[in-house]
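Cross-check.
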Amino acid sequence: MSESESKSKRESESEEITFEDALKQLEEIVHELEESGSTLDNALKRFETGVGLSRLCNRRLDDAEMRIEQLIEGDSDEGDGAEDFPRSERVEI
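Predicted model, tokenized:
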């Protein structure tokens, strides 16, 4: 498997993880690296994984922020925007 195929596979696998699970894994990696009981190669691998998780968390936060902004701004042509979300995620006011 080429390096670009491997990276694509890792990215698609990371997209399936929830924000909360990614954050928890990232916190575990930070703790492991702070303990610094691993080899340089292992530390670099864990750091690389942590960077990927950090980017995933940032993307998820950016997406959430955009959804919130869309709800707050609202578009008078499209109603209150609640139609864009599943019934279980709607809040009646």
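The mean pLDDT is 79. The longest helix spans residues 40-73. Passed to J.P. for a second look.
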